Amino acid sequence: MTDEDARLRRLLASAAKAPEDDAFLTQVQQRIEHARRARRITIAGIALASVVAVVLATPVLLDVGRQLAVAIGLASQGTVAILLSPLGVLLALVAGVALAAARRR
Amino acid sequence: MVGDDAAFSELVRRRQGTVRGLLRGMAGSASIADDLAQEAFVLAWKKIRSLRAPAAFSGWLRQIAVNVFLQHIRRAQAAPVSILPDEEHVAAADTTDVDLELDLQRALSQLKPAERLCVVLSYQEGLSHSEIVELTGLPTGTVKSHISRGSARLRATLAAETTP
């Protein structure tokens, strides 16, 4: 390190610490309080939005569930009807033969 | 919560001089530096739970201060403002100290922000090149050239100002 470097280092190091200031602390505390209030408002907003979303979505979800149940019921009725028809019996026979052939291999 | 607030206020009280001093060197203006220092302390308050080792507090706080300054540079590049040292903040008792500090602030304010950052971290904080690279995220070559060019300009400006 050259003398010039050392001098510059000393000069900068002497200015490294600013004097203590109570007003600075007060301003930091005010900013923290502001940030805390903003955080509380955000959390309350998210909670409110979630409640509203649940209230609005419940009837829709119930309706979708009911329609799904109806669809599943109709589909199972259709499957039973097909299996009990002559075509169903024929299909079951074909499937049984294919299964037996596959097992023998 | 009240205890936490009191403890954090004590931390601000103890560290404000160092953080404000660091940012005064980097920002080249006391009023901007104090504003950035407040921002850094608020960020530290928000992130304090992420600090695992209390012994690393000083380095952690310095990292936050440097990040706040880097963000400030980016914002300033988007909307450039001239930085001049504000004399009312240099209120030391000794006139010679005031003159010297003003000269230093004026000389620092003539450097580019990134040069100022590297020079202050190297000369004021005494950090090595690799530590500055880690802290700022700048490439090693850039850090070295900023320090070399910045310190040369700083020396030249100070020499010109102190020569009668």
Secondary structure: elements and pairs:
The complex is a heterodimer of chains A (105) and B (164).
Chain A (H helix, E strand, L loop, with lengths): L2 H12 L7 H63 L1 H19 L1
Chain B lengths: L1 H26 L2 H18 L9 H22 L16 H15 L3 H12 L4 H8 L3 H23 L2
Helix pairs in contact in B: 1-2, 1-3, 1-5, 2-3, 4-7, 5-7
Tertiary shape of chain B: globular
What is the 3D form of chain A? elongated
Proportion of residues in extended strands of chain A: under 5%
Low-confidence stretches of chain A: none
Main sheet specs of chain A? none
Order of helix and strand elements from N to C terminus of chain A:
HHH
**In angstroms, what separates the terminal alpha carbons of chain A?**
88 Å
Distance between the termini of chain B: 57 Å
Strand content of chain B: under 5%
Number of H/I helices of chain A: 3
Order of helices and strands of chain B: HHHHHHH
Describe the structure.
- The complex is a heterodimer of chains A (105) and B (164).
- By secondary structure, chain A is mostly helical.
- Chain A has three helices and no strands.
- Chain A has helices at 3-14, 22-84, 86-104.
- In chain A, helix 2 (22-84) crosses helix 3.
- Chain A is elongated.
- In chain B, helix 1 runs antiparallel to helix 2 and helix 5 packs across helix 7 (140-162).
- Classes of the chains: A mainly alpha (105), B mainly alpha (164).
- Chain A binds chain B through residues 4-5, 8-9, 11-21, 24-25, 27-29, 31-32, 35, and chain B through 5, 8-9, 12-13, 16-18, 20-22, 24-25, 30, 33-34, 37-39, 41-42, 45-46, 91-92, 100-101, 104-105, 119-120, 123-126, 151, 154-155, 158.
Q: What labels would you give this structure?
A:
heterodimer, A: 105 residues, mainly alpha, elongated, B: 164 residues, 7 helices, 76% helix, 0% strand, globular
